[in-house]
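Replying to the earlier thread about multi-chain prediction with a worked example.

Input:
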Amino acid sequence: MRQAGPIEAAIEASLAAALDTAAAPGAPARLVAALRHAVFPGGARVRPRLTLSVAAVCGGGRSPLAQAAAAAVELIHCASLVHDDMPCFDDAPTRRGRASVHAAFGERCALLAGDALIVLAFQTLGAGAVAAGRPERLPDMLALLASNTGMPLGIVAGQGWECEDWVQLPDYHRAKTASLFACASQLGAIAAGAEARPWKALGDWLGEAYQAADDLRDVAGDTSSLGKPTGRDLVLGRPNLVNEMGLAGALEHFEKLVDRAATSVPDVAQAPMLRALLRAEAERLVPPELRQRVGAVAHAAVA
Amino acid sequence: MRQAGPIEAAIEASLAAALDTAAAPGAPARLVAALRHAVFPGGARVRPRLTLSVAAVCGGGRSPLAQAAAAAVELIHCASLVHDDMPCFDDAPTRRGRASVHAAFGERCALLAGDALIVLAFQTLGAGAVAAGRPERLPDMLALLASNTGMPLGIVAGQGWECEDWVQLPDYHRAKTASLFACASQLGAIAAGAEARPWKALGDWLGEAYQAADDLRDVAGDTSSLGKPTGRDLVLGRPNLVNEMGLAGALEHFEKLVDRAATSVPDVAQAPMLRALLRAEAERLVPPELRQRVGAVAHAAVA
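Result:
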């Protein structure tokens, strides 16, 4: 879904506006700094780009409501990164190539920054519906955002599987990653006045593909290009597709998931454009040099 | 605001229904248990009782929307307790007379339980507005809940002042405690179809009174009746009114705040009943034996 500048500029502008709300006079300064650190500069912004891409092909373009929904999804994602990085979970010292929030601001600020970002996501969505003159779309959008963030099946539930003795890998990945992608695609549709349901599969498959790519890169990627350490799943005893399928199997699985995502795009006028963007995104997620490395390792294992 | 059984039963029923949503099939079991531990059995449920009392005197009784709003406020409160108790903040081993969530389920589950409860609060409010056939009231209610929970002035911001080197005590108490009370009273009004604004002062003053009572009990209370250790503010270097005003000064301040809360009640038919409930609540917050102890200590200090 990587597109020309305007879509990315719209995302950054919506996030900046949301953060400005949180940083209004009276706010404690360190927590404001921690919030900004958690959100800027961003990663690939893949979830909000999905929201705006779906809104665009559904005819909603970069409407204020679509932008608010995109920002809301990204704020939830940023919150989850801050809390997942904390010492009791991944204890990750770096994120996006620099200090993680707790490493830079301490555990207290990281805990509160995650909380504040979750609240800000719901606040941004509500304010966006009002500003866009579409308050009647809020109940469905709020329900989607909440169910894909919280319990029993959202990303918090997904992370919750890391507290269990036993976990079924697909359930874990579905909740931890795919749920927020499915939320992103469906919010884009509703924001544009379209039905949500036909856009769920796109988010589901893309989310699964994204998780598979993440697992692949954790095993076969290099730290400098990822901005975070590799091999963490093994160190942390976290489930990883590669352990289950091998490198070549995981790569094949990834390709299949991207295909399914592309096939699931409903038959709208701009569907071919959206499918082409998906292919480009797949190249970004698992770049040619990583594919080559996977091929070489798989070949060596067979030989 | 302590009333006969029905209001309390309504609160427990709404909370139970919300928790059942979170515990639906597919949820990780330990996190479900941690959520239930965080919410049941409850404390005094003072915030949801405020919501339902205001809704009642505004003519909204125990409507589904008022109940959802009451549950939402209490869920946010429970989330804040779980996160405030964690090792990086108060490191509190007990809460409401038994193990705190992190002590019982570990830090990971406590972190996620707080997150899930915040999300559940917004979800409960949204679902309540739809179930009550009042979706048009959702935008204002969502905005109130978010602004009084998050940044720059909600309870997360209030806790954020504990990360700063310097804090103005009234700002800290306003955000950390009074904001959610002001939210509770105003949500009750909106849920009943009344204007929110006239009910803000009641929540503000009652919240400040509640914080003053908490400070008093931290210094002069006894652990067994509170269900949590006393003297924690001193140990944790947290600001406490008693340090600033002395015990007698803090007690006098508390009484003044309760008076202001009672005076602020708008002139509705049932205002006298609500004012009487406030006086009863003040007796519960600072019981006679505590008043006597404060009097004795203050007397000894003068002598």
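Chain A touches chain B through 61 residues (CB under 8 Å).

Feel free to reuse this layout for your own posts.
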